[in-house]
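ARCHIVE CARD
Drawer: 12
Card no.: 0347
Subject: one protein chain, sequence and derived structure
Cross-reference: see card 0346
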Amino acid sequence: MSSTANKLVQPADIQATLNKIWESLETKSVARASLFNLIFFTQKNSRTPYFQKIASKVVEKFPSRVIFISVDKNAKEDFLKTEVSILSSSKGEFDVACDYIQFEAAGASQARIPFIVLPHILPDLPVYLVLAEDPSKEDPLTLQLEQFAQRLIFDSESTDNLPRFASSILKHYELSHTDIADLNWARTESWRDLMSMIFYSPQRLQQIQRAKSLNITFNAHESQFFCHTRIQAIYVSTWLACQLGWKFLNLRFDKDLLIFNYQTPASNVEITLAASDIATLPPGLILDLELTTLDSQKFSFNRNREQIHQITIQISDATMCALPAHYFSTKVESGHSLVKEIGHRGTSSHYLKVLQQITQMQMLGIC
């Protein structure tokens, strides 16, 4: 991924400046392309560079017009700064490139953002809005930007209270009737696919309904951009419980363990989320999952710490131990989860069920 130098311009000169940049590239093998409009909205903070990196990653896969909006809540002066550039990625003999427009605002100038952004949304193309801030803390500017979008993509890492986040997302969905998604939910897709594949048959479903315990280990190592590392593990465990019709009873903290209790048709099942700290792996990454049934059957899923896309599957009981199988998950690199969410249509009914369940877990608090 490469880009031209950012050019500071007045809002009224955005399109004219972009046209001049494209004119300068006419003699080069550069093709201009846009599949959709991709708008980012974030407060200016330590996570802003992370979302800028994500924007570049998405454009590598799906060329689009990127509009990146950041608001500086700590600035003492009122200002509006606009920059434009071109992002390009190599596609064989030529480069595919697209427009990149950045807005940074503070004070009263924030109110101008929707009016300045609207003329630069490419008509007849979908609009995807990535909201990097906690939706439970309503912002008038966020609400205005949402009206431009056909799909809202949230980031649950932004919240310090997951049940409150879940309630807010459900409210957004009910009021806006806009498709919604969550980057952390997308990051769990590989585990959801794997569990669906293993427990696809009536026999396997009968076995998992007799679950006695489920232990999930996740990487609790925090980074500059991620500190709520339990969320992906909570999503996977809650998804499994919802799909199997287990009834949530309670949860408790036991030192570093988060323990959920559910009622199942056969008995009660205890789900334990355990933290591991590995600095070389992505924060929040689910490392291992082990399920044991009342009949002493054991299903173990262990991620290779050196080749993290590989998961080893081991199934055993009191009399049998099957040969290990290997599953290769999708990439977990920065930006890939957003690429997947852009590729999906509609709103996941499974995700909505998970959110509804999480709203009952008020003790979760900070995740």
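Annotation on reverse: The longest strand covers residues 79-91. Residues 2-149 form one domain.
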